[in-house]
Write a structure and sequence with these properties.
2 domains, 51% helix, TniB, P-loop_NTPase, NTP-binding protein
Length: 292
């Protein structure tokens, strides 16, 4: 009866309803093929020999598709493997120009004063930190935020990315939406410095069905839901619009309802009962109309 679950998940069937729901809601690593391959590409950047013209990586895909979770998991794994931190994640701030961009990096490196200093002072402090910390990889999450300024501001950011490779042997990793790809590939010079690793929307194929099987095995429900059955799998894909964040959200809500209602399995009708509105339709959804 419990064969559909991972071995480490089965003991949760004996927990209280509250504990099972808390487990379902907790964030979890989903080691699908694209995530595993992207980790290998990131590992290659760590193991490369020193270079005056370092190669970078673009991890590009739509929102809510797991890009941030991939890079955060990689950074945590690297920190667990070695106390010498070589990978840092920068949450790129919204706003044009080097001032905002430098402030993002200083904040990630736990440096004080980045919000009040001039651009020149920020640059000076940043050079001192990079020379002292000697990171090997700098990951810029939501990098598209740095591309919303004037062309000269964007070029200044790109010049900085080129300089940290030459001066500090750092490989930059740019994480974001398709805008990142468009800007980097606008010139051959920048395109030659960054390899693309896409995280596209999921489509109905064997990889997607395997993802559903893995998610089902991670949800502590007493009965098998057979999520990869074609009719149910296509319905979930349509509601989620191929975004892994939406797939997880749908199954999380459905699994919690299955526990609370005593069904112990996710059915097509229980998914319909969620009245889940796909992301692209929420702007004009019935809930919004009721607010007018």
């Amino acid at each position: 009866m419990e064969d559909h679950l991972f071995e480490h998940v089965r003991p949760y069937l004996d927990r209280t309803i509250e504990e099972r729901i808390a487990y379902i809601r907790a964030p979890r690593w989903i080691g699908h093929q694209a995530a595993i391959e992207s980790h290998q590409r990131l590992s290659d950047l760590l193991s490369r020999p020193p270079s005056l013209r370092t190669q970078g990586l673009m991890i590009v895909g739509p929102y809510a598709n797991g890009k941030t979770m991939i890079v955060e998991r990689f950074a945590v794994d690297c920190l667990k493997a070695s106390a010498d931190q070589k990978v840092w994640i920068v949450q790129t701030r919204e706003g044009a120009g080097l001032g905002h961009f430098y402030a993002s990096i200083l904040h990630a490196l736990n440096a004080p004063g980045g919000d009040v200093w001039t651009v020149g002072r920020k640059a000076e402090q940043l050079d001192h930190l990079l020379a002292a910390l000697r990171p090997k990889v700098l990951i810029f999450d939501e990098f598209h935020n740095a591309l919303r300024g004037r062309p000269r501001d964007v070029e200044a950011v790109f010049a900085f990315l080129r300089r940290i490779g030459r001066q500090y042997d750092i490989s930059p990793v740019l994480v974001g939406e398709v805008t990142v790809y468009d800007y980097i590939c606008a010139t051959s010079e920048m395109a030659s410095r960054f390899e693309l690793f896409p995280i596209p929307r999921w489509s109905y194929d064997e990889a997607y069905l395997s993802l559903l099987d893995s998610l089902e095995a991670a949800l502590p429900l007493a009965r098998s839901s057979d999520l990869s059955a074609e009719r149910k799998a296509r319905h979930i894909l349509g509601l989620s619009e191929g975004l892994i964040g939406e797939i997880v959200a749908i199954l999380t809500k459905a699994a919690i309802a299955a526990i609370q209602e005593g069904d112990e399995r996710i059915t097509r009708s229980s998914i319909d009962n969620l009245r889940y509105i796909p992301l692209s339709k929420r702007r004009h959804g019935p809930i919004r109309e009721a607010l007018l």
